[in-house]
Design a protein that fits this description.
Elements lengths: L6 E6 L8 H17 L2 E7 L3 H8 L4 E5 L5 H11 L3 E5 L5 H8 L4 E6 L12 E4 L11 E4 L24 E5 L8 H9 L6 E5 L7 H8 L6 E4 L6 H4 L3 E4 L3 H9 L2 E4 L4 H10 L1
């Protein structure tokens, strides 16, 4: 049953430097909450979330960009003015002072966490962490493990994947922005192989388009380029994925496809160690 009175604030961020994983995950949940419960969704985004702002601007959801000089009081004021029933925080390093201020509001606080010891443990009503168990006793409910990684409906009940002895079909995906330029480096490396098919996914924050265009004319192995995954079948047709340590690693695990992963940073490397 829909409830048109549910109002939800989403605190998140996405940029070339940070990546776009938080934005993509937030939209999966926002769409579910909007379509399933008629929830009104409103985004609060920091001004340095250039790619994230551009992406949310194309959706049906309202949003406000917080000025760089915006103080904590102003941030909380914006939240109060919207009068949300639920606040969802999907930020890599949420600040304790911010969480303390939210605790004073009469609203449900939900955090999506990605690190070992989040500042939200003492303040959030519900925490989801797809990798790490709680380091100390949390204030509210804490759900962790890969079953809490938000995936699209199309990843449910997939047939068992047959692993081929010879890898001919490759899928490359290094996040919404690929800050390390892994797409270019991997394409160059794979050009040493003969008779392979390459599907390459780039995100909204990808900043190497000109280099990729120049490279495409030099490679013997041509590739199919996607900015949005058109269908789950694109995944299932692959023999192997070469991806970074974000949500895509979970999507490949769901399909049962063998995967090589490259880490953009130390945090991703640690998470992948645990994931494996």
């Amino acid at each position: 049953m829909k409830n048109d009175n549910i109002r939800i604030i989403y605190n998140t961020a996405g940029s070339n430097k940070l990546g776009m994983g938080h934005i993509y995950t937030s939209l999966k949940l926002a769409n579910k909450l909007n379509e399933g419960y008629g929830a009104e969704i409103f985004y609060l985004l920091p001004c340095d979330s250039d790619s994230g702002i551009n992406f949310i601007e194309k959706t049906k959801y309202g949003f406000k960009v917080l000025d760089e000089s915006s103080k904590l009081d102003n941030h909380v004021k914006e939240i109060k003015e919207f009068k949300p029933h639920i606040i969802i925080n999907d930020i890599l390093y949420v600040k304790e002072e911010f969480m303390k201020n939210l605790r004073n509001l009469d609203t449900l606080i939900v955090n999506l966490e990605h690190i070992k010891e989040p500042q939200s443990l003492k303040y959030a009503d519900i925490i989801f962490n797809s990798i790490y168990p709680p380091s100390t006793n949390p204030r509210g409910d804490y759900y962790y493990g890969l079953k809490y990684m938000p995936l699209k409906e199309s990843f449910k009940n997939l047939p068992k994947h047959k692993i081929n002895k010879y890898c001919k079909n490759f899928y490359l995906a290094f996040g919404g922005s690929d800050p390390s330029g892994f797409t270019i480096k991997t394409l160059k490396s794979l050009d040493n192989l003969d008779d392979i098919t390459l599907n390459v996914l780039i995100g909204a924050g990808f900043n190497h388009k000109n280099e990729l265009k120049r490279l495409s004319s030099k490679l013997k192995n041509k590739f199919n380029l996607f900015s949005i995954v058109p269908d789950i079948s694109v995944y299932i047709q692959q023999d192997i994925g070469i991806v970074s340590g974000g949500n895509t690693i979970c999507e490949f695990a769901a399909t049962g496809i063998s995967t090589i992963s490259l880490s953009h940073n130390e945090m991703e490397a640690e998470r992948l160690e645990l994931f494996s």
